[in-house]
UniProtKB/TrEMBL annotation:
<dbReference type="GO" id="GO:0016705">
    <property type="term" value="F:oxidoreductase activity, acting on paired donors, with incorporation or reduction of molecular oxygen"/>
</dbReference>
<keyword id="KW-0560">Oxidoreductase</keyword>
<dbReference type="InterPro" id="IPR011251">
    <property type="entry name" value="Luciferase-like_dom"/>
</dbReference>
<keyword id="KW-0503">Monooxygenase</keyword>
<dbReference type="InterPro" id="IPR050766">
    <property type="entry name" value="Bact_Lucif_Oxidored"/>
</dbReference>
<dbReference type="Pfam" id="PF00296">
    <property type="entry name" value="Bac_luciferase"/>
</dbReference>
<protein>
    <submittedName>
        <fullName>Monooxygenase</fullName>
    </submittedName>
</protein>
<dbReference type="GO" id="GO:0004497">
    <property type="term" value="F:monooxygenase activity"/>
</dbReference>
<dbReference type="GO" id="GO:0005829">
    <property type="term" value="C:cytosol"/>
</dbReference>
<dbReference type="InterPro" id="IPR036661">
    <property type="entry name" value="Luciferase-like_sf"/>
</dbReference>
<feature type="domain" description="Luciferase-like">
    <location>
        <begin position="9"/>
        <end position="251"/>
    </location>
</feature>
Length: 340
């Protein structure tokens, strides 16, 4: 059995061929898709965060809106770039969104990927400490965020406050019990997966990973997951972690499906450079008739090892089409693979 969610990048473009033409379209359609997915008994609605792009950015208003409109589905991110985040303000907004959703928030965070602008975090008021770099800055923001999510008081109260305080140092409010255990780290390498385990975060392994061995992506991800779980065990945490992998899965069952994706050529992993130092492997798309998809996905070692599968959706094709894709996977693919 797998927990199955969708992952939307929230693209929008004014192109006449897009059904998501404005930022408002992207946000409102995301809320509508999450509600429809809950009716299909999809387990999670996850959203990618990118800055300076025609995509979803600030996630917490969206997550709170979905939380208020739904009752069961997990609501999350995959991922928030911690280079851009004030960790204390983030803890407040995350706590509020989690309380609105009734404790269903699943926050994927990471050090981020190459963005639309050079050093975009500078415009948000952040700068790596002397002798450090942006990756270390993201990890430092993360450590502060995780610490304040414990709910322990740390701020000295005003002796003459406007409102009465509880005794002792004050914590951030609103505080949501249990959110600390629902933080995930989007790891691009085996080393960062091990670091996430040491910090007690769940693991998100995406369709992009540092190419550390030259093996297919799913094999490298399986090894990454094994390294994460070994580090988790060594750290001695008292709960079982969750692990997700993301996949682009597009069943071809209608003429519309075949018109959109019948000529898809992304049936092999791709290797490229995401910056001047990092060679990465990009995951393939899985496109075909449901029985073909079952055969292909049955050999995916990372999916077999993970407990959660996030299905990337082509959000610009509109809510109805994406509901069709999710429903087809749930009915015609997932049961044959033992995911349902």
């Amino acid at each position: 059995m797998k927990s199955i969610g969708f992952l939307s990048f929230g693209h929008w473009t004014p192109s006449p061929y897009s059904k998501t033409r404005t930022g408002a379209d992207a946000l409102l359609q995301s809320i509508e898709l999450a509600g429809a997915a809950e009716e299909l008994e999809v387990d999670g609605a996850y959203f990618r965060v990118h800055h300076f792009a025609r995509q979803l950015a600030s996630p917490f208003p969206l997550l709170a809106a979905i939380g208020a409109r739904t009752s069961k589905i997990e609501v999350g991110t995959g991922v928030i770039d911690m280079r851009y985040e004030n960790p204390l303000y983030m803890a407040e907004t995350a706590g509020a969104a989690d309380l609105i959703s009734g404790g269903r928030l699943q926050l994927g965070i990471s050090r981020g990927s190459p963005e639309q602008v050079i050093d975009g975090w500078r415009y948000f008021g952040f700068q790596p400490a002397e002798g450090s770099d942006e990756q270390e800055m993201a990890r430092r923001h993360t450590e502060v965020f995780l610490e304040v999510l414990k709910g322990e008081g740390f701020a000295e109260p005003n002796p003459r406050p406007m409102f009465a305080n509880p005794p002792g140092p004050l914590r951030l409010e609103p505080y949501s019990e249990g959110l600390r255990e629902r933080i995930w780290w989007g790891a691009g390498s085996d080393r960062t997966a091990q670091w996430a385990a040491e910090k007690g975060m769940n693991l998100q392994s995406s369709t992009l990973k540092d190419d550390e061995t030259g093996e297919p992506l799913h094999v490298q991800q399986r090894k990454q997951i094994e390294a994460f779980r070994a580090a988790w065990k060594e750290a001695g945490h008292d709960r079982e972690p969750r692990v997700s992998v993301s996949r682009s899965i597009l069943p071809l069952v209608t003429d519309e499906d075949r018109a959109y994706f019948g000529d898809d050529t992304g049936d092999q992993d791709q290797v490229g450079w995401i910056d001047d130092k990092t060679r990465a492997v990009f995951g393939r798309s899985f496109t075909g008739e449901p029985d073909v998809l079952v055969d292909l996905l049955a050999g995916d070692e990372a999916i077999a090892t993970a407990d959660t599968v996030l299905l990337t959706v082509p959000n610009q094709l509109g809510v109805d089409y994406n509901v069709h894709v999710l429903e087809t996977i749930l009915k015609d693919v997932a049961p044959a693979l033992g995911w349902r």
